[in-house]
Amino acid sequence: MNSKAIFIVGAGAIGKALAAFLKSEGKEVVLLRGHLDDHSAYTEQIEVVLKNSEVIKAEVPISTISNYSELNGLVVLTNKSYGNAAIAQRLKAKINATPIIILQNGLNVEKPFIEHKFPQIYRCVLFATSQLLSENKLQFMPVSDSSVGIISGTNEGLLSIVNEINTQHFKFKTEPNIYAKIWSKTIVNCVFNSVCPLLEIDNGIFYRNSEALSIAKTVINECIAVAATQGILLSSEEVINSLLLISQHSDGQLISTYQDIINKRKTEIDTLNVAIATIADNLQEKRLAKETSLLGELIQIKSQIALSSLSS
Ligand SMILES: NC(=O)C1=CN([C@@H]2O[C@H](COP(=O)(O)OP(=O)(O)OC[C@H]3O[C@@H](n4cnc5c(N)ncnc54)[C@H](OP(=O)(O)O)[C@@H]3O)[C@@H](O)[C@H]2O)C=CC1
Ligand SMILES: CC(C)(CO)C(=O)C(=O)O
Question: What EC number(s) would the UniProt record show (predicted)?
């Protein structure tokens, strides 16, 4: 199969790491800015530090969406999900039959692309952590292969995309039951992305501390009950094991929501705890997600405090 141009939207922790890995393996890659569209184009020498201290370096071209009249190849979304509605609008006229793949956390993040009738939409559930150490240097830790499934598209398209984006250090695999995977990872994120920023601690806390793990189990069991109301049946033991595996493999790494609060950026909590609490609320079963909801509200307050210190 011929290699396609890969356009990665969002020059953040995941986008830069993925771009560097792909470029270092000879792929044609362009990083497109997510929230900027100022027409500037430049290159950046990106360095990705692996767990064994090995450093992968690559010179990556960075541009903006408006520099292209068409995006032919593959579009990979690594922007924050709250930018999706605006990005769908900006990409719509430029992608024709080009597939898009969404590498983001959370429930229903693909909705704007479905509403705009993008022809091929694939969704990736990430099992890796990436943290910016400086503007062009990242710390990357894989947990396991990240799962990719079909939202709208074909099995052939799915296989081709996984093949295109798979690299030695950031691995992807196909997932036939992507909605169950999205829910199971979202539940894990409901724990990490609320408890870690509130405790101001790294991801390793759940395998190091039994009391934190006990809170995690409460949240997981609540969210599993909400998932069941949507026809998604998950095993509590499997979700807890997934949480523990991530905790162990990303020991020392900070969860994205904690990085957002520290860096005074908006968080994605609305697609995590808040999304699950809203489902329970809409069913008039608020009690199903009581602790999950409370943790989400605390993150909203913590985030508002951080953001308001920007303007003061
Ligand atoms: N980092 C991690 O370890 C993991 C992250 N994820 C998920 O991957 C996705 C990307 O995360 P991550 O790379 O950490 O995030 P970062 O915040 O590091 O980068 C995301 C990029 O999104 C773009 N962006 C921010 N706000 C907007 C907006 N309003 N509109 C459009 N684009 C915007 C910016 O791109 P630009 O600078 O080009 O404008 C930013 O650099 C998220 O959904 C996250 O939850 C999942 C698992 C692990
Ligand atoms: C749970 C974790 C660490 C797994 O990749 C993650 O999703 C994040 O950092 O946002």
Answer: 1.1.1.169
